[in-house]
Each structure stands twice: as structure tokens, then as C-alpha cells.
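Batch job 17 of 40 flagged for manual review because the log was empty.
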Amino acid sequence: RRGGVTVLTFTQQRHGQTSRRPPALRCEEAPTLRPCLMQGEDTRLPGLPRYVRINTLKLGAKAADRALLESGYRRAADAADAGKRSYHCDEDVPDLLVFKPKGKSDISRLPLVATGEVVVQQKASCFPALALAPPPGAVVIDGCAAPGNKTSHLAMLMENRGRVLAFDMNERRCALLRERMALKGASIVSARHASFLSAAPADPEYAGVTHVLLDPSCSSSGMSLDPITEPAALAELASNQRALLLHAMAFPGVTAIVYSTCSVNEAENEMVVAAVLQAQADAPPERRFRLVPALPAWHRRGHRCAAISGAARREEVAACCVRTLYPDDGTIGFFVARFEREAAAPPPPSDALLHKLKKLGRERAKRGR
């Protein structure tokens, strides 16, 4: 029992290991699976705005405004509008709309959600795909994909050109991933019922892979009132997270990797990043990755962890990584890091994405941000 609530115990296979405890949850799955595990108790963080990402594979911004108006919602200039049936555009993420918190808006009933033309997705959960920003025509691996919000975001940023190889080792979740990609029109996504760790970097099938997104299982400490806290479990999570990152770095054509968690624990975030940098520090230049600033316009950066050896490395990790803080940033707690291969610069994002980001930057400057 935990907090007066009976928790079901079952075995879970994770990368070849068996664990007798409820599984670590990723930020996209927890709102649906965690309440089930807790027999109806809602462990989500309260009071957050509701976010809806326009799926530009199926719908443009103006068409979304018209459809939302038909559903009784009107677009406001900014968050200062007090109307319950209003929404505004997010200041940081392109194509992201901000609605009132749960109880003041009911976006799950929007017809656009049912048709896949918009995606209900927390703001911070949009950061990984945006930080990776693969261009149209790229070949991308999403190593921990289901249920697929980030996967569909990747396809959207790529304008449905190229390939996204989406791995998930759970058969039911992989089937759900396929269904959701079809609903959202993400035709470049190929769902694979397998562990990313089983993908051989030397396999010719992966020779063209240039980008990897990793959002692995974590403690959910950034988005749940009931996160995993057991030291042994956190150590196992961090070990798996390091293994996934180092595996991604072994793919010869990969030039950019984004790693993210919905955890606030340094052991799963900055410490994982520092350990991976140290582990491949002696690799030849053509195989070595460096840490680069993720989402440079975002204000909240990483922690200066005393446990990271060397002042220069501590500063590097803190300056390059991104964090979000609940409730200050109006979203769940989150972490993002971006790595690039030293010997091969990744291609730039699409012109359309660059244009949207510059426009948001100008609007933030007008508001004094």
C-alpha cells in the first residue's frame, strides 16, 4: 500500500531485465496509465494550462481558429484574457495553443482532437522534437516512441518527408502508436515492436539515420504526485538511460541526438549527460559527440551539479541543458539535452520552422521577454 491506496504488483520486462514493481512512466503515458495503477487516484500535477498542438499535417492555423470558433472557443491576444472559452498562442512553441486549466476548459471533447487535427500535448512535451528539429527528408529514430505525441511532432516538423523509425517494445503500445500515427496523418512513421537497443548500428538499414530522439522511461517526478523514488529503481533507470544514449551514439550516420525526461532528478538528467560525455571522451573525433545548447531561447537552464567532476564540465552541462519547472513555467517539470557529432554538423531545420521561431522571437522581444 502507498498513501492508503493498494498498488498492484506485477512483473515487467525492461531491456531484458525483470522488475517486480509498477513501471516507470513517460510523461505522455502517465496521465492515462498512472490513475489506473492507483485505482482511480489522479496523480497529475494540478492547475496547469491545457495545451493543444495544431497538427499542420492536416490543418493550418487559420483553419484551426475557424474550427475552434465553431466549437465555442475564441482566440485571445494573450493570457491576460479572463474568458473561460478563450485560448491564445504559446510564446515559445510554434503551432501550440494555450487553454484554461482543467475545470475551466474541456479540450478533450473538441472535434479536432477526435480527427487528429490537433494534439493534446503538454508544452514541455513539445520541447524534444523542437530541440531535435530534423529537416524534411531526414531519417530519424524515435527510440522510445509510444504512444506517439513526440513521434507525430517529428513527422510534422519534417513535413511528412523522410522517415521516422519508431521503436517500442510493448506490443499493445506499439499497436496504439500505429493507430495514432494513422489518425494524425503521419505517414512517414514506421512503428517497430522492438527495443531500440536491439537495433544494430552497423545494419545497412540504419545507414541513413541522421537524428535520434530518446525520451526513455523515467521516475515521472516532473509530472506526477506519485513518482518513483526508490534509490535502487532510480539507479536502474539512470543506467538504462545511459545505455540508450551511448547506443544512439554508435550509429555511424547520426549527427544529432536529443535526450529528454519528465523527471526533475539530477541523477536522471545532468548526471546522465555528464556520464555519457565522459564515457565517450576518448573516442576518435569522428565518433565523438559534444553537448550543444538545446533551445537557446528558453530561459531556464540545467543545474550545476556538485556531483559532476570538474567545474568546466558542470558549467557546460548547466548552460547547454534545458529544464522546465512546475508551476513557474506553466508546464510539467522536464529536462532536455542535445548532442551533436563533432565531425559532422547536422543539417538545419526547415525554412518554415525557422520562420516560425523567428516570428515568436520577435513577439517575445515586443513583450520584453
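Reviewer: the log was empty due to a logging misconfiguration, but the result itself is present. The two ends are 46 Å apart (CA to CA). Unflagging and moving on to job 18.
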